[in-house]
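Supplementary notes for students who missed Thursday's class. We covered one full example, reproduced here. Read the sequence, then the structure, then the short commentary at the end.
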Amino acid sequence: MSSMSQAALVDLSSWTAEGAGDWSLQSGNDTVYQSINGDPTVFFSGLDSQGLSLSGEITVRTTSDDDYIGFVLGYNSGDLNNPNADYLLIDWKQNSQQFFGGTATAGLAISRITDVMDLPTFWKHESTSGFQELQRGSTLGSTGWNDNTTYSFDLVFTSSMVQVFVDEELELNVSGNFANGSFGFYNYSQSDVLYAGITEDIVPAPTNVNGPASLGIFALSSLGLLGFRRRRQVISRG
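Structure (token representation):
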């Protein structure tokens, strides 16, 4: 990854797992591996994260499944089962798939969750009182991730803006009024996912910013992400 001016490695040893996952810290404590194919699971910081950026790499290290990987923003302990939850879900599915009487669509999306987790709703992205899909990726909205491929990610999270970059491309750019809470990682029915080299930085206050396009340029510049980063094939490290 490109270095950022004030970015610091994140010690994940104090993060918390919830849901049906098995999250294993790797050497250095800035990398975590989720090995279970099951119901939704999150691994989150437990600290308010607005005004921060989170960066790293994500790899699915298997060819045996094609489901959801991603992140949560503004997450608080117990929110998977909280009828008063208010957090953002960023999920990315490899292939479209029929299940629960409907279709889970391939691609990257951001949704707002304001109720308890409901498996069919999370699977199909059904619009309900507790699940609202806000936006799909600009180039990855209907394109899934590839097996054994490492992608860089950069998340910018403030009270009024969320931006998600994949391999330096601005994929999601959403404005609104967002509740504070944790950064976290998310899997649903997908095993063998590695989140690696996690760093965190403070997002500077923007100046002379006019509209979403300028916000994208601002975030890239302030986070030091203008250096070219290639998606690359991963060699399994056992």
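Commentary. Confidence is low (pLDDT under 50) at residues 1-5, 225-238. The longest strand covers residues 193-202. If anything here is unclear, bring it to office hours.
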